[in-house]
């Protein structure tokens, strides 16, 4: 085999290895797999069901940018197309509530579904309703009054409809829903849709259906420029995936091209590209395999971040090649850089080991991935690449006279000045604008803040609760849940009436328990009593007794009805009730089965309302039997805070281990101080920059800091080697500059990402790596003597 | 009907008398009618209670008691047919009326009578007959007999 071909063959072997591993790895994308199991079993069951249930499949749709009638037309037509597409379980717009056929059962069961004061059926109560009816009969709405008014003088149907309509603050106009409180001349039509299936893929397809239908409907309209606004969990999932995918493609291409250009410029050989990739591919294969073996699956997020972290292992082969003299055997290069290289890898491994202990499964997986990858990349570089680069004859272009190097090194004479920005950083961090930890789990979301803001806006306009805090009313079956809610209703109504909470939707307000319906039946007057009351009421009015025959017939029929059961509801009404109740366990087919539990879901309009309600009703976070308070967001946020704090402690532990390793292997206290000082200064400066930019630290920043510290340690250890001849020092400086440039190219591009998490990591590592390079050069390297042009030659890199 | 179709806009007073089975006495209402070709109809009632009904194209707006309700007539064929009985007559649109009603025209230009009988079962559940009487280009009286026997008679007097 010709020698230049060997790197290519080795690269193909590494690529085949990676392909083989990835073909067998179980790759998972469910975020739930990354989250800790820190909540009680019943809470977890409920959370899981919610995640898959109604709330998770809800798409909020807004249309704006045209006059109201045109928006209403678009909303109605869009609703019709979506309903016909089959991709949605439910589409609700302002017109759906008015479908008389779907609402017919509510009319038939009106006297069972809503409370009626007994006096409404007595002569004075009925008499009081007559002027309104008379006015109605005189108006253009007379047909409706004849149909619904005369059959229901107490107006109970209106109460029932109001409860079931649940339109909250929505304004209805031109047969569509419109957002209330919009600026004049900027109306916004609103719709709700529930995707038929769960999961990312069906969500994406459903969104495509909405966009296509809207494009077709709004195409060529002369009235304004209608815009479609989409929000809700399915939108987030699809958008985040698309943004990350687009970012990944675009950014990977840019950073790969810049890294390739840098390598080609420095080494003038395409073979070096193959050599640099070999440890990277091998490390990815080993890392994925280790995680698969330890956890049984590899999460896509682990893979994404892990690949980012292992990206810096391209430094290893570059350090090796960059320090080789032209034509040198591998022993020579290894003697000069071996100890520093080994110590750098050891420290990186020790730092990453700290992540293994995290109780946050996502972080533990990432730690194992990175640890395995770093060790593999180092081993492959040391044992496979060292002979390979000699065989392929790879070495950097020889540098010119060391004069320039000496000029650069003279900068170290004034290195104490560099303590000024470090001191300033310390001052900033200690001050009132110091670092803050992110406690809001939502900020970790890959969803762009603008999308979250739109979601909050549409949710508020639609009156859809954000499910951040819910109360659960448990029961063995739905009817028990309804009865339990009825017991709470007086207190809830009291809070609403006092204005202490915004009105909440309750399943029992829509569908009363069987017992309540029977009690209402029993309270209805018999035929003779009612007939007497009617004739008493109409005395002296234009009304004939026959006018109220339908009313008397309906009351008589109501007394004989079998109470309305949930399973008797038509699909339209069932869909309305669905978000208010939750079934956990049991068979999905319905009917009561073993292990099945029901919950009434009370979703307050805000977290503050939730606190008031929970307080007034005595709800607790725990108990499986009593009323449960489930602070979805607060629970998740508290968990996040606990795990972030824990991760920082682990990081500190890792730092101590690194310190011990440095002390053990470097021995010289001055050198240890130089290396540590450089890293500490770089970390301080990075944190100060983040604090000054108002960034709150997340787990991802922690990962980024660790990455940056690892890179900085490489720099510092290579600068800290005992002073060698000027030629070797020049090689070190230019090789580390190349490594630094590659890191900056990779992470600087990442800082341009649209995904907040990637942007945070990119910015942190970019700032940190640059600072680490500067401080490592200044503090870890030796300060040149004031008068020294004579070069000491030293073959042994470590002092004895 | 051609004479009717030639009038671009109308403004008239109306007096409506309803005889309902529910009430022992008739209800009388009065107000104004506005029509503009091709599809704008407005009924402003001033007594007994003020209300305003505007049909423009396929949208019906109903204002009463300080509330505004809007209906899409394309989604409510029965309501659309009811509106069309009046609007189509004023427009002289025999073909349009023929879609929902069996149309019979009697008399001559001096005194004519247009009878509209529902063609569909759904419409027949609401209406038995709509009869319009008039002379020349002026409709004078619209009688509506509902399916349950309730009747409404509207007398129309043109305003300048």
Write the layout of secondary structure elements.
The complex is a heterodimer of chains A (800) and B (160).
Chain A: H1 6-24, E1 27-28, H2 41-52, E2 58-64, H3 68-85, E3 88-92, H4 100-108, H5 110-113, H6 123-138, H7 142-149, H8 156-165, E4 171-173, E5 176-178, E6 188-195, H9 199-218, E7 227-231, H10 233-267, H11 270-295, E8 298-299, H12 300-310, H13 315-322, H14 330-356, H15 361-392, H16 403-409, H17 419-430, E9 436-437, H18 449-462, E10 470-475, H19 478-497, H20 507-510, H21 514-523, H22 527-538, H23 549-560, H24 571-577, E11 581-584, E12 597-602, H25 607-617, E13 628-630, H26 632-666, H27 669-692, E14 696-697, H28 699-719, H29 726-750, H30 756-780
Parallel strand pairs in A: 1-8, 9-14
Antiparallel strand pairs in A: 2-6, 2-7, 3-6, 4-5, 5-6, 10-12, 10-13, 11-12
Helix pairs in contact in A: 1-11, 3-9, 6-7, 6-22, 9-10, 10-29, 11-12, 11-15, 12-15, 13-15, 13-29, 14-15, 14-26, 14-28, 17-27, 26-27, 27-28, 27-30, 28-30, 29-30
Chain B: H1 2-5, E1 9-19, E2 27-36, E3 40-47, E4 51-56, E5 59-64, E6 67-72, H2 77-91, H3 94-100, E7 101-107, E8 112-118, H4 121-124, E9 127-135, E10 138-146, E11 151-158
Antiparallel strand pairs in B: 1-2, 1-11, 2-3, 3-4, 4-5, 5-6, 7-8, 8-9, 9-10, 10-11
Helix pairs in contact in B: 2-3
């Amino acid at each position: 085999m010709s020698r230049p071909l060997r790197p290519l063959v080795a690269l193909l072997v590494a690529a085949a290895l990676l392909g083989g591993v990835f073909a067998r790895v179980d790759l998972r994308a469910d975020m739930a797999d990354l989250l800790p199991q820190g909540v009680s079993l019943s809470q977890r069951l409920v959370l899981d069901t919610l995640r898959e249930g109604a709330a998770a499949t809800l798409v909020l749709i807004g249309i704006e940018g045209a006059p109201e009638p045109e928006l209403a037309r678009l909303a109605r037509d869009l609703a019709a197309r979506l309903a016909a597409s089959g991709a949605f379980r439910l589409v609700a717009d302002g017109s759906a509530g008015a479908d008389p056929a779907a609402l017919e059962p509510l009319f038939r069961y009106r006297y069972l579904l809503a409370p009626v004061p007994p006096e409404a059926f007595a002569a004075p109560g009925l008499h009081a309703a007559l002027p309104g009816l008379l006015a109605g009969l005189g108006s253009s709405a007379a047909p409706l009054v004849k149909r619904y008014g005369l059959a229901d003088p107490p107006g109970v149907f209106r109460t029932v409809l109001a409860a079931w309509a649940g339109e909250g603050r929505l304004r209805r106009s031109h047969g569509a829903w419109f957002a209330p409180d919009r600026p004049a001349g900027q109306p916004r039509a609103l719709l709700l849709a529930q995707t038929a299936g769960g999961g990312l893929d069906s969500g994406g397809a459903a969104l495509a259906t909405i966009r296509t239908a809207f494009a077709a409907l709004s195409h060529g309209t002369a009235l304004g420029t209608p815009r479609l606004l989409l929000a809700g969990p399915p939108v987030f999932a699809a958008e985040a995936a698309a943004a990350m995918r687009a970012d990944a493609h675009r950014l990977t291409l840019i950073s790969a091209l810049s890294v390739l250009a840098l390598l080609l410029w420095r080494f003038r050989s395409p073979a070096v590209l193959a050599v640099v990739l070999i440890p990277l591919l091998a490390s990815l294969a080993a890392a994925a395999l280790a995680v698969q073996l330890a956890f049984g699956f590899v999460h896509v997020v682990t893979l994404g971040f892990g690949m980012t972290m292992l990206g810096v292992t391209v430094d290893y082969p570059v350090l090796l090649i960059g320090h080789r003299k032209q034509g040198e055997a591998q022993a020579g290069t290894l003697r000069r850089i071996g100890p520093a290289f080994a110590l750098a890898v050891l420290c990186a491994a020790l730092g990453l080991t700290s992540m293994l202990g995290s109780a946050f499964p996502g972080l533990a997986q990432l730690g194992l991935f990175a640890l395995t990858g770093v060790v593999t990349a180092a081993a492959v570089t040391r044992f496979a690449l060292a002979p390979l680069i000699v065989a392929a004859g790879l070495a950097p272009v020889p540098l010119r006279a060391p004069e320039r190097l000496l000029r650069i090194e003279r900068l170290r004479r004034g290195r104490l000045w560099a303590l000024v920005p470090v001191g300033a950083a310390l001052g900033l961090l200690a001050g009132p604008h110091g670092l803050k930890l992110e406690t809001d789990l939502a900020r970790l979301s890959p969803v762009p803040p603008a999308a979250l803001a739109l979601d909050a806006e549409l949710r508020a306009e639609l009156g859809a609760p954000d499910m951040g805090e819910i109360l659960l009313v448990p029961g063995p079956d739905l009817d028990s849940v309804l009865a339990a809610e009825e017991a709470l209703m007086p207190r809830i109504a009291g809070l609403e009436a006092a204005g202490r909470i915004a009105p909440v939707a309750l399943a029992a307000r829509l569908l009363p328990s069987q017992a309540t319906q029977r009690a209402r039946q029993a309270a209805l007057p018999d035929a003779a009593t009612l007939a007497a009351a009617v004739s008493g009421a109409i005395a002296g009015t234009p009304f004939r007794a026959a006018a109220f025959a339908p009313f008397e017939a309906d009351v008589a029929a109501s007394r004989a009805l079998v109470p309305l059961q949930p399973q008797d509801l038509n699909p339209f009404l069932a869909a309305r009730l669905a978000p208010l109740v939750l079934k956990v366990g049991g068979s999905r087919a319905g009917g009561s089965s073993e292990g099945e539990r029901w919950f009434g879901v009370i979703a307050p309009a805000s977290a503050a309302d939730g606190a008031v309600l929970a307080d007034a009703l005595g709800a607790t976070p725990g108990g499986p039997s009593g009323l449960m308070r489930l602070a979805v967001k607060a629970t998740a946020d508290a968990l996040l805070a606990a795990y972030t704090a824990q991760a920082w402690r682990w990081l500190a532990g890792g730092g101590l281990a690194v310190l011990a390793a440095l002390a053990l292997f470097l021995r010289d206290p001055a050198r240890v101080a130089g290396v540590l000082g450089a890293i500490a200064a770089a970390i301080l400066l990075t944190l100060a920059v983040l604090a000054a930019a108002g960034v709150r630290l997340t787990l991802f920043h922690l990962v980024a800091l660790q990455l940056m510290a690892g890179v900085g340690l490489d720099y510092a250890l290579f600068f800290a080697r005992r002073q060698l001849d000027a030629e070797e020092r020049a090689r070190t400086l230019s090789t580390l500059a190349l490594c630094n440039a590659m890191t900056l190219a990779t992470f600087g591009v990442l800082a341009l990402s649209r995904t907040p998490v990637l942007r945070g990591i990119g910015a942190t590592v970019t700032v940190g790596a640059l600072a680490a390079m500067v401080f490592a050069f200044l503090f870890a390297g030796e300060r040149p003597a004031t008068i020294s042009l004579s070069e000491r030659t030293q073959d042994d890199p470590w002092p004895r | 009907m051609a004479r009717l179709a030639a009038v671009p806009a109308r403004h008239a007073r109306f007096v409506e008398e309803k005889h309902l089975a529910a009430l022992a006495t008739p209800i009388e209402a009065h107000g104004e009618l506005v029509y503009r070709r091709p599809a704008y109809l407005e009924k402003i009632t001033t007594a007994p209670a003020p209300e305003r009904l505007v049909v423009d194209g396929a949208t019906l707006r109903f204002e009463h008691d300080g509330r505004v309700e809007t209906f899409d007539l394309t989604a409510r064929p029965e309501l659309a047919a009811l509106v069309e009985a009046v609007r189509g007559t004023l427009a002289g649109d025999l073909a349009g009326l023929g879609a929902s009603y069996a149309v019979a025209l009697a008399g001559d230009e001096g005194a004519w009578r247009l009878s509209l009988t529902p063609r569909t079962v759904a419409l027949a559940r609401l209406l038995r007959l709509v009869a319009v009487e008039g002379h020349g280009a002026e409709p004078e009286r619209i009688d509506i007999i509902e399916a349950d026997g309730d009747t409404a008679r509207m007398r129309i007097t043109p305003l300048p």
